[in-house]
Design a protein that fits this description.
Oligomer: single chain
CATH architecture of the largest domain: 3-Layer(aba) Sandwich
CATH class of the largest domain: Alpha Beta
Structural class: alpha/beta
Distance between the termini: 28 Å
Length: 234
């Protein structure tokens, strides 16, 4: 199986260790991962702000860049949702099979125990796109529940938005901050040391508030937890 990593803009720019974690994880499971250097943005932020022509050009570039791969793994529910939901409408072609990381592990590779070790209390935030657009359901929880040493705490109000929403946070800062404050309050109720999610954009938003309040709770992409072992902790 030819597997490619689409790292996404946010991860490439701000959280490159997430992409490295995906490669480390899949390599440990016996798969070779390629990284096409011609990849750019999926076009989500362009489409969301009305630049449809730019989004279409980026979509066509994505389809060309990843042509021929059996699977494209995306460590972002938001970007995976954009590709699967809107590319057929933009370019009439959704390109190669695209999978968010947890659905690739569970549905394609058929694994839930990936050999991870992470001895911490963790709670999981199901981001809006992964929950509502991709329908990831319990896949992330099934993976986290198999991580050795991990104490998985249920997050109250888990299905509620964190308030990021891309440009929503910029256009509606007061509402966004209030929504994030509610989310942070729920995170603190769990007593978790770590908040995990499948989107670093949401983790950046929530993590900023956690840091400003000096809560001591850190945020980690689920890929980094699943890639963690006793020899290479996250």
């Amino acid at each position: 199986m030819r597997i490619a990593l689409f790292i996404t803009c946010v991860n490439d720019t701000l959280y490159p260790r997430t992409g490295k974690a995906v490669v480390r994880l899949l390599s440990r499971l016996g798969h070779r991962v390629e990284f096409p250097e011609a990849q750019t943005c999926c076009g989500q932020m362009h489409l969301n702000t009305g630049y449809r022509d730019d989004a279409e050009r980026l979509a066509r570039g994505f389809v060309r860049t990843f042509a021929g791969y059996d699977a494209v793994v995306v460590p972002s529910g938001s970007c995976a949702g954009m590709i699967r939901e809107y590319y057929p409408k933009l370019v009439g072609d959704d390109g190669p099979p695209v999978y968010e990381l947890t659905e690739f592990l569970v549905d394609v590779l058929g694994v839930t125990d990936v050999g991870a070790y992470f001895p911490h209390r963790v709670t999981y935030h199901p981001t809006c796109h992964s929950l509502r657009m991709l329908g990831l359901g319990d896949r992330p929880y099934r993976l986290l529940s198999q991580v050795r040493g991990l104490d998985l705490a249920e997050l109250p109000g888990a299905a509620e938005c964190c308030g990021f929403g891309g440009t929503f946070a910029l256009k509606n800062p007061d509402v966004s901050a209030a929504m994030c404050a509610d989310k942070v309050g729920h995170v603190l109720e769990t007593g978790a040391e770590v908040l995990a999610a499948a989107d670093n954009s949401c983790l950046m938003h929530i993590g900023g508030t956690l840091d400003r309040q000096r809560t001591g709770v850190r945020v980690l992409h689920i890929a980094e937890i699943l890639a963690s072992t006793e020899e290479a902790p996250a």
